[in-house]
Amino acid sequence: MTEVTFRDETAAGRAVAEFAVAGLPARMTVRELIRLRVREEVARHDAAPASDRFHGLVRPGGAEAGPDGRRPREPRRLDWERQAELAERAFAANGFVVLAGDRQVEDLDEEVDLAADPELVFIRLVPLAGG
């Protein structure tokens, strides 16, 4: 079994947040890893009811983004499956990229060798304004 670190970074490479999950198989698809990550984030959020901020890959519906996380309009439990679907769509639409080791993974069904690359980096992409 493998321990994997999920880390968020800015486009400039600055680490923003990270957490590890142990007991994973040696190979998983990007889809499975995104779903696992989102499920873990939602579980951590729901286990800390005093926290009114959500620090996760996608913004829950109706939540307002701020510098210290996303704040739902009212405290509530989140549906991890709904959040995972949103994350999958965001990945497919280039809303964020995933790096495994020194390479970018580009397909939800691509397998990642977690024994060789136990750190996954998630970088949110921000569309440029202007025109």
Describe the protein in words.
With 131 residues, the protein is α+β, with helices and mostly antiparallel strands. The protein has a single domain, classed as Ubiquitin-like (UB roll) (Roll), CATH 3.10.20. The protein is 24% helix and 34% strand. The protein contains 2 helices and 9 strands. It has helices spanning 30-47, 80-92; strands at residues 2-9, 15-24, 27-29, 64-66, 69-71, 96-100, 103-105, 111-113, 119-124. The strands form 3 sheets. The chain has a 5-stranded mixed β-sheet with strand order 2-1-9-6-7, with helices on one face. It has a two-stranded antiparallel ribbon with strand order 3-8. Strand 1 (2-9) and strand 2 form a beta hairpin. Helix 1 (30-47) packs across helix 2 (80-92). The longest helix has 18 residues, at 30-47. 19% of the residues are buried. The model has no long low-confidence stretch (mean pLDDT 83).
Supply the key terms.
131 residues, alpha+beta, Ubiquitin-like (UB roll), 5-stranded mixed sheet, two-stranded antiparallel ribbon
How far is it from the N-terminal to the C-terminal residue, by CA? 49 Å
Main sheet attributes: strand count, strand direction, barrel closure: 5 strands, mixed
Put simply, the count of helices is 2
The fraction of residues in strands falls at 25-35%
| Structure class | alpha+beta
CATH class: Alpha Beta
The name of the CATH architecture is: Roll
Low-confidence stretches: none
Radius of gyration: 15 Å
Our count of domains comes out at 1
Q: What is the subunit organization of this protein?
A: single chain
Widest sheet: strand order? 2-1-9-6-7
Overall average residue pLDDT: 83
